[in-house]
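cache lookup: miss for this entity combination. No prior model stored, computing from scratch. Input as submitted by user K.M.:
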Amino acid sequence: MTPLQWQESPQQAQPPGNRSSAVGKSDPWFAISITLIGLIIGFWLGRSRGVIRPIALGNPPTQIAVPVPKAPALAKARTIKMTAALWKFTPNVVRIKQGEKVTLEITGVSGTHGLSVPGLGINETIIQGNTVSVTLPTDKTGTFDFRCSIQCGSGHADMKGQIVIET
Ligand SMILES: [Cu+2]
């Protein structure tokens, strides 16, 4: 047949109103079905790609310990300067706290001396013009005598003092 002979089929000829009312009855169910299918597919895809994860019941998260900050006074290192001269250590009494980080800096002013602290395992030689640094162990408390350990002349026996470590 020729294009001119073409006729609308009865269904196509129906007025739009009739058609929409016929489809309108099934519309809510169709929408609900599509929505449900969409949700199921979406959920399944999410699970399979790890986007949705089941709630972990057995394994608590790994705990990472945060270091406990020390008291500021103890955490900060302290340097105590001392001089060794003929014939005295200055200062000759050093007071520090248990656990404190202390470096003793001894400078030789005159003569050659030795700083010996038997109770703390320290014995250093201090030559005139030089500076020696010693880290003091502060884990135990007490009064630790020190003395010059090198024969330095007539006042050698006077060269003594104490390191006092307090709680
Ligand atoms: Cu001496």
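stored under new cache key. Residues 113, 148, 150-152, 156, 159 surround copper (II) ion (CB under 6 Å).
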